[in-house]
Amino acid sequence: MDPIRNPYAPGAGQRPPELAGRDEQLAAFDVVLERVQRGRPERSLVLTGLRGVGKTVLLNALRGAAVRKGWGTGKLEARPDQSLRRPLASALHQAVRELGHPEQSETDHVLGVIRSFVQRDAGADAKLRDRWSPGIEAPAVRGRADSGDVEIDLVELLSDVGGLAADTGKGVAVFIDEMQDLGADDVSALCAACHELSQSGLPVIVVGAGLPHLPAVLSASKSYSERLFSYQRIDRLERAQADRALVAPAAEEEASYDEDALAAMYDATGGYPYFIQAYGKAVWDLAPRSPITAADVAVAAPEAERELAVGFFGSRFERATPGERDYLRAMADAAADLGADPVGAVATADVAAVLSKKPQSLSPARDALLKKGLIYSGERGRIAFTVPHFGRYLRTQA
Fold first, then answer.
1. For residue 179, which phi and psi values (nearest 5 degrees)?
2. 55-64 tens-digit pLDDT
């Protein structure tokens, strides 16, 4: 098979040639956009799932849908070591520019509020580079979104942005990736702002994406967050959807798979979108001709696994210290000993038993892995890998 015509795209956040299995989410989001634009009550949206299920790809697709409807949009990626102010200000600056409000004075006022919001984080004695607001030439609006209380400031900021959007008959959507990495104060402020916006009916929504424990993070911040957001779990693809993700791009290049090959691909990938792209690329490059067969999949699987071992699993494993790696291996062994779902949660007590240690002594390693995003805790006393098939990798290669 010609590698130049290989249609598969195993990249981080890179849209696959066929976005299979997400039609329901895309259709539901179109309804949200229309309702908000018409002043109807609607909740902001939160996407959750393991790494490799396509949350970022879907987030970008939803943003594209908003852009096509003439909305102002902005996107940011949360980081645990960064305040929300600066990246959110950049996202809103872009959204305001996309809105194209006809009155420049109104636009300048909101841009000034954005500038005021971000400069408040820098402080009066901050260096010039920390007080600089790229592209915002409007002067800061004093006394608006600059109190220093991020909750008060964010409510004022999004209210002003929402008012500008309402004037145009459109809306503003802010897309936040890795939302679980927001600081506690920023999460609380964001929930409060969404709550205020939902009551005022302003056309602003937040679309967040994060790991499976994100709902618990939001709930711990504001109890009403359970009713504030519409939560959608993004999971692996069903067999028919996984087949479509492989077959449709191949058909565009006048190639095909036989039924046994598709079955073998689903067994190998588990239906996880990133793995489908990785295996698809390897199989295409090594298959001698079309149709691709189960034998071709068997030949290419080791190559796909080597690529995943280095770029997907290995890069994460290398971030862990020796003690943390022992903990990860113990998690994999505990799941295997219990016959548990390979992407399911295991009890911390079972992990401690594998290591023959008391659970309390392992708390530092567990907490460090949680902060690094290698594991998550969806319920008290239980933990799971954030990456599908990570346990299998640890047991066979690491």
1. -65, -25
2. 999 999 999 9
The string of pLDDT tens digits covering residues 141-184 is 999 999 999 999 999 999 999 999 999 999 999 999 999 999 99
Largest CA distance in the chain: 69
Backbone angles phi, psi at 233, to 5 degrees: -85, 120
Beta strand residue intervals within the chain, DSSP E: 44-48, 72-77, 172-177, 204-210, 229-233, 346-347, 375-379, 382-385
Question: How is the chain split into domains, by residue range?
Answer: 23-233, 238-317, 322-396
Q: How far is CA 267 from CA 82, 294, 301, 371, 387, in A?
A: 40, 11, 11, 32, 17
How far is it, in rounded angstroms, from Cα 23 to Cα 143? Answer: 44
Report which of 227, 160, 170 is spatially closest to residue 34, judged by C-alpha positions: 170
CB atoms within 10 A of CB 340: 16
CA angle 258, 264, 270 (to 5 degrees): 130
Q: Which CATH architecture has domain 322-396?
A: Orthogonal Bundle (1.10)
d(CA 119, CA 121): 5
Pairing between β-strand 375-379 and β-strand 346-347 as defined by DSSP bridges: unpaired
**Which candidate, 51, 15, 45, places its Cα nearest to that of 30?**
45
Indicate the pLDDT class of residue 128, thresholds 50, 70 and 90: low
For residues 36 and 171, the answer to whether their CB atoms sit within 8 Å is yes
The answer to whether the peptide bond before residue 41 is cis (omega within 30 degrees of 0) is no
CATH architecture of the domain 23-233 equals 3-Layer(aba) Sandwich (3.40)
Neighbours of 20 (CB within 10 A): 22
CA dist 46 → 136, 191, 226, 262 (Å): 30, 12, 11, 32
pTM of the model: 0.91
